[in-house]
Amino acid sequence: MQNVLTIICWDVQHGNALFIKTPGGHSILSDLGKGSYSSRNTRFSPVNHILTRSKPKHIDLLILTHPHKDHIEDILSLNRAKVNRVILPVHLSKKDYLNARIRSVDKPIFEEYHRYSQRSKTTSKINFDEVKFSFFYPKEAGRSRLNDHSVVTVISHLNFRLVLMGDNESFSQKELLDNASFRKLTKNCDMLLAPHHGRRSGFVQSMIDHLNPQITIISDGTPRGTSVRNKYATGSRGIDARSRNGIRTIRRALSTNKDGVIKIEVGTYRGQPHMKITTKPSGS
């Protein structure tokens, strides 16, 4: 393929972590979960893996959807990298996330998040090459419901749109659906990163009906009673995906727990827009 946008969705246990590389070589991180089920390494650091293997000169953009540990646990690994821009929910104050419930051993993680929050500004759009990043900031929920303050990112490249929902639950999803700009940009999208790890609390039928994705990616841990991945599969149209052993099948939903690291490539193939999806074990 040519003119390729690459998105790596890491297997980080029950967290979220994505590495995005634009056709022009810009490097973007979206959330900083840590660990791996498929390689049985709870200390696996996607950030260290990227900095060692890909060796980017800097991180052009860091997106942190919200300040929960499973989305920022790897943040201290960024000390060895230069980060140019930061997107996160700046309307949240330090007392909203760094409080008595945070264990002492985890406080450096949240202190580092706060340091990055000092650099962030509310921005609606950022372009890298021909790739467009659009951001939506739900903020009507109470501050104790941090999931409902997750930044939503919509990535547009060629005629494809990929929606990263953070951990937004029903309250904020209804707020988003009331936003005409969000509805226009996300209707019949191509890929959805499921809200709140594909759990029941993040599933809103009216949202999945609106998004109507080709495929839903679920970044999750071991399925439990709260998982509704089958509902996301039912609500997705399906697309050809290649598994780690080379088998190609039509998939409606993929999960990091079952499928490992998920790689999405969007570009042109034989002059036509094309999206390619493959899975592989962590760390490979």
From TrEMBL:
Record's keyword terms, sorted: Hydrolase
Domain named Metallo-beta-lactamase: residues: 48-195
Transcription keyword on record: no
Gene Ontology MF terms in the entry: hydrolase activity
Coiled-coil residue spans: none
Pfam families named among the record's database cross-references: Lactamase_B_2 (PF12706)
Name of this chain's protein: Metal-dependent hydrolase, beta-lactamase superfamily II
Protein species of origin: Reichenbachiella faecimaris
